[in-house]
Write a structure and sequence with these properties.
156 residues, alpha+beta, Small Protein B, Chain: A, 4 helices, 31% helix, globular
């Protein structure tokens, strides 16, 4: 994520870009407890096996690991607890209708701090098959080779 004014990148789910075609993206707030935001600001969070589930008209982020804050003196918070995503009703309805289509899912792409608030960029995505993944890597390699060729010609 390119650093913009007021946005501090925390964590990215690079594997999601490899495993899914991204159809649409949304920005969601996070409902956090106690010292979780302090751990997030220290970048002690992982999005590796994280996914989004819709239940009872709400979106929940499951399996996001937030390391417990070392100087927390109050209550212990489970590191991989389920966290509610804060989206407006129109976005929730769009996600609900689209995720019912076979092969489409909702995955988190990145976590960042925007103007002091923790935000998650989630995406409506369609799973790639093995041959699609190979095609993506092949195209990426070709574009990298072309860029190298252009750089070499400019230096001459």
């Amino acid at each position: 994520m390119a650093r913009q004014k007021g946005i501090i990148p925390i964590s990215a789910n690079r594997k999601a870009l490899h495993d899914y075609f991204i159809l649409d993206t949304f920005e969601a707030g996070l409902e956090l407890l106690g010292s979780e935001i302090k751990s997030i600001r220290l970048k002690e969070v992982t999005l590796d096996a994280t996914y989004v589930r819709l239940e009872n008209g709400q979106a929940y982020l499951l399996n996001m690991h937030v390391k417990p804050y070392a100087f927390n003196t109050h209550t212990l918070v489970d590191a991989t607890r389920t966290r509610r995503l804060l989206l407006n009703r129109r976005e929730l309805n769009k996600l609900a209708s689209a995720s019912e289509i076979k092969g489409q899912t909702i995955v988190p792409l990145e976590l960042y701090i925007k103007n002091g608030w923790a935000k998650v960029k989630i995406a409506l995505a369609k799973g790639k098959q093995q041959h699609d993944k190979r095609d993506t890597l092949r195209k990426k390699d070709l574009s990298r080779e072309m860029e190298r060729g252009f750089k070499n010609k400019i230096k001459l």
